Amino acid sequence: MEKKDIIQSFKDSLFTGLIALALFGPIVGLRTVSKGEGLFITPQWGVVFLLVGLCILGRFLININSARRTEFKIFSTLSSKFSSITEDKAKHFAITGILFAVVFPFLPFTDRYFMDVAIMILTYIMLGWGLNIVVGLAGLLDLGYVAFYAVGAYSYALIATTFGWSFWICLPLAGVFAAFFGILLGFPVLRLRGDYLAIVTLGFGEIIRIILINWYEVTNGPDGITGIPRPSFFGLPFKRSPDEGETSFHLFFNLEYSTMHRIVFLYYLILVLALITNYFTLKIRKLPVGRAWEALREDEIACKSLGVNPTNTKLTAFAIGAMFGGFAGSFFATRQAFISPESFTFIESAIIVAIVVLGGMGSQTGVVLASIFLIGITEMFRDLEQFRMIAFGGAMVLIMVFKPKGILANRKPTILMHGDKK
Amino acid sequence: MSNLLSVENLTMKFGGLTAIDDLSFDAQNNQITSIIGPNGAGKTTVFNCLTGFYKPTNGQMFLHKEYSKISLRKYTDFKIAYVAKVARTFQNIRLFPAMSVLENLLVAQHNELMVASGYSLFGLLNLKSYRDKEQLAVDKAKYWLDIIGLTHRADDNAGDLPYGDQRKLEIVRAMCIEPRLLCLDEPAAGLNPKESAELNKLLKFIKTEKQTGILLIEHDMSVVMGISDHVVVLNYGKKIFEGTAEQTKNSKEVIEAYLGVDE
After folding, report:
1. A291 touches chain B (CB under 8 A)
2. Between residues A317 and A404, which one has the greater pLDDT?
3. Structural domain includes residue B170
4. Rounded CA gap, B142 and B148, in Å?
């Protein structure tokens, strides 16, 4: 490394500092505080200088590192070790993970907060697995996946509040409705690919949300739907004092009443739903239709030349992906007991796509790791209020820098001729 | 030997450009028919019309079955391969690079496997009837891999194979749909002499052992002259000559088209 290089990289990092100053100066430096009758500006130049200094230092280190033309050894060994662990012991890893998930509610440190976060992560894992069929396997970039989540949630909420049917009847119905919307979206976008497809699906997601806001007579508009029935344990509700002629869960099992019963039940419910999604995806991937999805992702023209019907293949991918989104949506509705269009904004779609892409397209375990990493880190920094989105962004950047193809980017063939060599 | 394909007065216009102009020719069963011509003569356009990627402006294409004939114009898109059983390969190889060699060959048998899996239902239930059918499909794939000597690489990604092997794999993938007519678009492009010789052997095998007619676009004259039973020469979308390989070699029109006329 020459002296000239060092001076060059130093100049470059100073320039970076200048850009950082221009950005952080007004955004962080000038803080508005409302005091009494008006807004006042409180400058916080100390924080700005700290941030700018960090940028300069970081840029300088990156420059020097790239000039050496070698990677930081720690990172490369870490990442290769990580992939070797997960590849070789994928099965053990999965079984341990599922076992841990099963005993999780009974671990000593598990409290209400942990359970809520775990339920949220599992919901995202399920959504990620559902979207993985569309994005990871069939290669159709769907930026409006939250639309199916919304359709599932609203179908469940409307059916349950109008007809009073039980969760176990509404759940499949919500899935069917969502699948129907998946096909509805599928038809106009059949001819589109790549960026064009992404834009149209993004628009579809917004259309659904805006319909939910404006169709006041049915969806109750921005006020949302309240009083969505909670799920019952095979007919036993989780109530402190059940209605006449009803037995509630804690009375039936002779337990002390606790709100945790319902939370734990919800936890197992989403765990089972997510595992069903996973099992289904792993199975269908090895069937002709799954192979056709992947072939379509690889080369659509070659598919046509082999007699694979691209229309049907794409529509099944959209429908099945949407169906799982719908299941997750009805779970969301029954958990919250209240839904409004605000829960189904574009950022939700973006997070789910981020989970699938960062997990490694098509990798089921990758989705789990990415969900835990992204949602977990965001939750860990909840105390930082609005800055926690920085943690989310930071987590994404970290994965992109060190694992540009996703956390687990290895694809295993769906069928082997010579058996597993290992 | 019987008539397999007859192309009658085929015309394809792109705006003002006439890519194929009133082309008629026949191809026979169990024969290799080569279409040759200088660059831009319209050879690949003929293929694209035959395999449903383009809809021709004019003309008819018939595929003869034992007692009937079907018009290829009626089928578009994937139905050419699915219903009419016309398979093709591409000038720039179009494998599924991130899928294994075996998976590539199974996708080619998609439609039979789809029915066998009860449109996924039997497959999800893991019924024996489906597993048996899948095993048959794997056996068929193995049969073809044995022929091109790639069985040991069946579980590797198709994109990781050497170029010559990818060419051969694309051909046997097309053969897995059990086509009646196989259209090969420059299969020898980029192959070294040894690989070309292997290709010749493979094509001769398909011609003699399978009930398949082969239509071949090729620039490599060692391939064309070595294996063609019949040669059609195109220039500017028109047929300028038709005959055996030997006749073509000595044809004045063909030499003029390739080398120009002595002024």
Report:
1. yes
2. A317
3. no
4. 10
Indicate which of A289, A304, A305 best probes the interface with B, i.e. most B CBs within 10 Å of its own CB: A305
Question: Residue B173 domain-assigned?
Answer: no
Residues of A with Cβ-Cβ distance to B53 under 8 angstroms: 301, 304
Task: Record the pTM.
Answer: 0.83
pLDDT of A96 reads: 86
Nearest CA in chain B to A297: B96
CATH number at residue B228: 3.40.50.300
Q: Which residue ranges of chain B lie beneath pLDDT 50?
A: none
More confident site: A88 or A66: A66
Shared-domain flag, residues B201 and B247: yes
Looking at B163, B188, B207, the residue that finishes a domain is B163
- Quick one: pLDDT at residue A333? 93
Structural domain of residue B115, as residue ranges?
95-163
B103 in contact with chain A, both atoms CB, cutoff 8 A: yes
Question: Which range, of A61-70, A181-190, A230-239, B176-185, averages the lowest pLDDT?
Answer: A61-70
Whole-number pLDDT of residue A63: 78
Show the tokens assigned to A420.
Answer: 């597993």
Q: Do B103 and A310 touch (CB under 8 A)?
A: no
pLDDT of the residue at B89: 92
* pLDDT tens digits along B59-68: 888 888 877 8
With a cut of 80, say whether residue A8 has pLDDT above it.
Answer: yes
> Nearest CA of chain A to the CA of B104: how many Å?
8
Q: Which of A410, A367, A420, A421 is nearest to A86 (CA)?
A: A410
CA distance B172 to A179: 37
Record: contact B96-A310, CB cut-off 8 A: no
Which residues numbered 16-75 in B keep a CB inside 8 Å of some CB on A?
51-53
Which of B163, B186, B215 is the last residue in one of the domains?
B163
**Alpha-carbon A380 to chain mean position:** 17
Pairwise CA distance, residues A329 & A191, whole Å: 28
Q: Do B155 and A292 touch (CB under 8 A)?
A: no
B7 and B81, same domain (yes or no): yes
Position B172 in a domain: no
For residue B139, give how far its alpha carbon lies from the nearest alpha carbon of chain A (Å). Answer: 9
Residues of B in contact with A299 (CB under 8 A): 94-96
Total number of domains in chain B: 2
Q: Are residues B20 and B39 in the same domain?
A: yes
* Cβ-based neighbours of A173, under 8 Å, separated by 6 or more: A155, A156, A159
Tell me what the pLDDT averaged over chain A comes to: 84
- Note the ipTM here: 0.89
**CB-CB neighbors (< 8 A) of A288 in chain B:** 106, 110, 113-114, 116-117, 120, 123
Q: Say if residue B67 is in the same domain as residue B120.
A: no
Does position A422 have pLDDT exceeding 50, yes or no? no
Same-domain pairing of B32 and B150: no
Rounded Cα gap, residues A171 and A155, in angstroms: 9
Per-residue CA distances from A315 to A133, A189, A279, A293, B212 (Å)? 12, 10, 21, 10, 34
B/e letters for A160-175, b = 16+ CB within 10 Å, e = fewer, are: bbeeeeebeebbebbb
My answer on whether B65 and B103 are in the same domain is no
| Contact between B107 and A309 using a beta-carbon 8 Å cutoff | no
Q: How far is B143 from chain A (nearest CA, A)?
A: 12
Asked if the structure places residue B20 within a domain, the reply is yes
Q: What is the DSSP letter of A221?
A: G
